[in-house]
Specification:
Layout: H1 4-12, H2 17-23, H3 28-31, H4 35-65, H5 69-83
């Protein structure tokens, strides 16, 4: 019904569930009728969001290691906010 990799890629860019469905031409109301498919769709979104955050943190970490104090501060705040 949907391509998991595409869902993850869009979720990594912080698109909402509805936006992802719109981009991929998925009828979200129809998807909600099938609990198993909806569950898989939301699991792929969760994975994509996590992957996107990991990519951002990796990029910030590399910049911080090279002396970018702004990247260090942004990374520190992201980590702190995720722990709250």
């Amino acid at each position: 019904m949907f391509n998991a990799e595409q869902v993850q890629a869009l979720a990594a860019r912080k698109l909402t569930e509805q936006q992802i469905a719109d981009v991929l031409n998925i009828d979200l109301e129809e998807l909600k009728k099938d609990r198993a498919s909806l569950s898989r769709f939301r699991e792929e979104i969760r994975k994509g969001v996590s992957r996107g955050e990991a990519e951002i943190r990796t990029a910030l970490y590399k910049r911080a290691r090279n002396g970018d104090s702004y990247a260090y501060e942004v990374l520190r705040r992201r980590v702190q906010n995720s722990e709250d």
